[in-house]
Amino acid sequence: MQVLILGAGQLARMMALAGAPLNIKIIAYDVQTESLVHPVTREVFSHDLEYGIANVDVITAELEHIAPDILNICQASGKFYPGEEAILAGGNRCKEKVLLDKLGVNNARYQIIANRDDFDVAVANMSLPMVLKSAFGGYDGKGQWRLKTPAYADIIWQDIVKFLAASHKTERQYIIAEEFVKFHREVSLIGARSQNGSIAIYPLTENIHVDGVLNVSVSASEDTALQAQAEAMFEVIAVALNYIGVLAIEFFDVSGTLMVNEIAPRVHNSGHWTQQGAEICQFENHLRAVCSLPLGSTKRIRPTAMINIIGEATVPISVMSIAHVHWYDKEPRLGRKIGHINLCAFNDKQLGESLKVLALHLTKDEFPALMVAAENLS
Ligand code: AMP
What we know:
Distance between the termini: 46 Å
CATH class of the largest domain: Alpha Beta
Structural class: alpha+beta
Bound molecules: adenosine monophosphate
Low-confidence stretches: none
Helix content: 25-40%
CATH topology of the largest domain: D-amino Acid Aminotransferase, Chain A, domain 1
Order of helices and strands: EHEEHEHHHEHEEHEEEEEHEEHHEEEHH
Radius of gyration: 20 Å
CATH architecture of the largest domain: 2-Layer Sandwich
CATH superfamily of the largest domain: ATP-grasp fold, B domain
Number of domains: 3
Strand content: 25-35%
């Protein structure tokens, strides 16, 4: 079985590694160089994208920001999963919000802003602080602003105008003004839906972000009522989109009531713990789903924490004696995710203790959320 992945980053790399035992061969389309590459060896293939699309069995994606013409050809091939509609919904906050509202899925109140007048109306009508987010092109906290008092409206608007001017022109950019949610934590749900409509969902994970970027994700014991709430929303969204593949949903947990923050139509950073913590990892389950193979068990086999390695962070080799280290073969660069660590334990308490031990090997500057995660478990 040959699978073409749109995007050639770490997610494609980890799918290639997970697919190898199933004889699933992966080629990836690097959107920067516009070439077909092997996502692990980085070998560049001489064929072009059209040849790849015509000759693989299945097409999928590791990112949602895909040029409309490429999306169209992939969709027309009849072998693209999860498909255009899901990718567009995940890649554009306006479409995502409209979808969630249409399905009656709880999400933060918002207003769509196209110009200064809309912005002024939002500032006048919505309670402050508010979060402003670009409809697309923003990720990991980029393309986002916080407006705390009307006094800063002009300054923030000037920054937004610069952002809008720099946005690419093939699609109209908007800003979403969203009410500030006073959540007490953030969680996410990763699940897979197969071509025959069966669904397999992993346990919820708790996510700790620093400056809008995921730092640590912990999969430990969870409240069954919260899990049921998240799964019900997952099912509504996945069925409505006739979704095939792994879908990730990020939530705000507001004292036991979940509110969707965003959906990602792909394998997700907060699902990396499944490589060591679940019976079948998210990467393999995504491939199983899109290749019409039976879904694998999503059962958590042990509490696991995933810690992102970001920018120029260093990891002494001593860490390998207590945890699993996954490098992405990427040049270190400020803010760039270059690897992650999966730390496993027999129970929640031991995971908290192990996180404290791990913190002794790593610096607080480079791994700021480790102790927070440890304290949450004790
Ligand atoms: P996002 O790109 O939407 O995932 O936002 C990045 C991070 O900003 C989230 O993980 C939250 O920590 C925070 N955030 C986003 N939207 C809101 C909101 N409406 N209220 C409070 N915090 C938010």
